[in-house]
């Protein structure tokens, strides 16, 4: 096997935070559940070295635009927001304002954000694109500098928490990818992707993280997550 073609082992875990504690934290920082999730992602990104040359962090927000009878395979837009992460643990006003502007400008993304439809435009060519070209082009999340993926699925239908008719003790969702090589992950500037939602009285945050040059282990990811929770004065139950 050529060096770099071996499968990348991407550590992943899920943290559960009491819903009331989470909402109280968001309110005290001048934000809401969504902006607190983004703030958490940004501070975790800082801890893991996902900081751009200008000192900002890049938050990429996959948003569904699927409508009724919409059969597209990728009915998503990917607005991207750059924020100063310095005070995210205590003040969410900047990220709240930037998100508000981003969503208002989404149909015709401004120069401050990646044009969402242009980002998706090359996807139909993926199957015909040589691997070395895709790596050079930085397709997908890798097109942004040190992207931090933040996917918020919001409040889940209570039925989702009852797969067999009884209430599940825990529920979460996370990013799932097929076997991916180390070379591929590192070729798109590594991976830090978070998914959040709420149900059963808890907010969950699932984290996938692989950063070249760091110790990519469950223990290291757990330590980074625990320390980031502490920045927000949050307590969480970590699985994984």
List the helices and strands and how they pair.
Elements: E1 12-18, H1 19-28, H2 33-47, E2 57-60, E3 63-64, E4 76-77, E5 80-83, H3 93-105, H4 116-120, H5 131-137, E6 147-155, H6 182-187, E7 191-199, E8 202-210, H7 218-231, E9 237-239
Parallel strand pairs: 2-6, 6-7
Antiparallel strand pairs: 1-8, 1-9, 2-5, 3-4, 7-8
Helix pairs in contact: 2-7
- Give helix and strand order, one letter per element, not per position: EHHEEEEHHHEHEEHE
> What proportion of the residues form beta strands (DSSP E)?
15-25%
* Helix/strand/pairing category: alpha+beta
Biggest sheet architecture = 7 strands, mixed
Number of strand segments? 9
Strand order of the largest sheet: 5-2-6-7-8-1-9
Return the CATH topology. Answer: Chloramphenicol Acetyltransferase
Average pLDDT rating? 81
The residue fraction in helices comes out at: 25-40%
How far is the N terminus from the C terminus?
30 Å
What would you report as the Rg, rounded to the nearest angstrom? 18 Å
**Ranges with pLDDT <50 over ≥5 residues?**
109-120, 134-143
Total number of distinct structural domains: 1
CATH class (first level) name: Alpha Beta
What would you say the CATH architecture is? 2-Layer Sandwich
